[in-house]
Amino acid sequence: MRKAAIAIALISASAAGAAPCITSQGQFGAYKQALRQEAAAAGIGPSGLQALDAAQLSGITWRFESDPSSQSGTRYRSPEQFLTARFASVNSFVSSAQQRLNQNRAFFDAIERQYGVPGSILVSIWGYETSWGGFTGDTPIVGGAVTLASYCRRHPRFEDDALAALQLVDQGVITGNSRGGPSGELGHMQFLAGNWVRFGVDANGDGRRDPNNVADALATAANMLRANGWRAGQPYSEGTANFGVLSAWNDSGNYQRAIAYAAGLIDGGS
């Protein structure tokens, strides 16, 4: 697989100064106006600015962020509990993941040779995030990303991702109407927009880096993990360096333990 020919620099919100955060939904319009000035100063083009102008506050994103207790990282769950909260059983998850890994063994082996990340980790993340592409989200990506960035509990940490989403509209990777996860996540692996800009890979060689293309998404996930310190051929169980790298993907300890646990079962059954 070949790497993307051109690296795209992420537009940084810090360069222009972050727009002020909000504490009520009625302030969303004012936040967008401030973000628009910031985006224009950072070089976002007409398509991205139009997408921002049209973006609506994402109610599901706001409700989710307003209730931290609903989030998986707020209380300890065993890997089994974490997986079975979404899937029928651990066995069904592992069996489905193994099936996809075995069906595409040459592809996953090629990814591991290039990036050092085993297929068991990638297929576990893919399965947990979107049921292997079965559901990639129905929230407007730009609206979700901007809503998340606006919310004071999350601001300004996610403002770069809101700007990156606008940048991806400019580049034609997504449109203002594209849909994904409730926080603006993209495609098969549910990348935040900033991570797609930083690490996106054209793995199928069609000249595009497409988060809705399975090959591009999986290779990009491996590229992101490697860039954050993944060590090829090393263990990934809890307490190892590679386990720590999973925090770059999702900072929930529950999530990290579940992915490492599932991948271990997949490797054990391969």
From TrEMBL:
Keywords: Signal. InterPro entries: Lysozyme-like_dom_sf (IPR023346), MltB-like (IPR043426), SLT_2 (IPR031304). It comes from Histidinibacterium lentulum. Residues 28-237 form the Transglycosylase SLT domain. One of its GO terms (molecular function) is peptidoglycan lytic transglycosylase activity. This is Transglycosylase SLT domain-containing protein. Residues 1-18 form the signal peptide. One of its GO terms (biological process) is peptidoglycan catabolic process.
